[in-house]
Amino acid sequence: MKLLRMKAGHGEIVLAEGDVKVPQDERRLIEAFRRELDQGMWAAVPTETAGGRREAELVKSFAEVPRDSERVIFFPRAAGGSAPAAS
After folding, report:
1. Which of 11, 14, 34, 36 shows the greatest Cβ crowding within 10 Å of its Cβ?
2. CA 19 to CA 32: how far, in whole Å?
């Protein structure tokens, strides 16, 4: 499994990679996963439907990542939006 961060102008940057069946690798992947979430990043697991359509499923913890996933992609949350309405 690879943990990748999307970075504008750079594409995908490899943060960590390893085999989830190897305890030491799994710990390193979990630590890197948690670090990205702590920095405010979103995490998504790429999927493909039976018809071949590519999608992604947002995950909030490493436990939600399917064990057979090849990669998890991190990307920044969207900034901006409107200010809360005044009461």
Report:
1. 36
2. 14
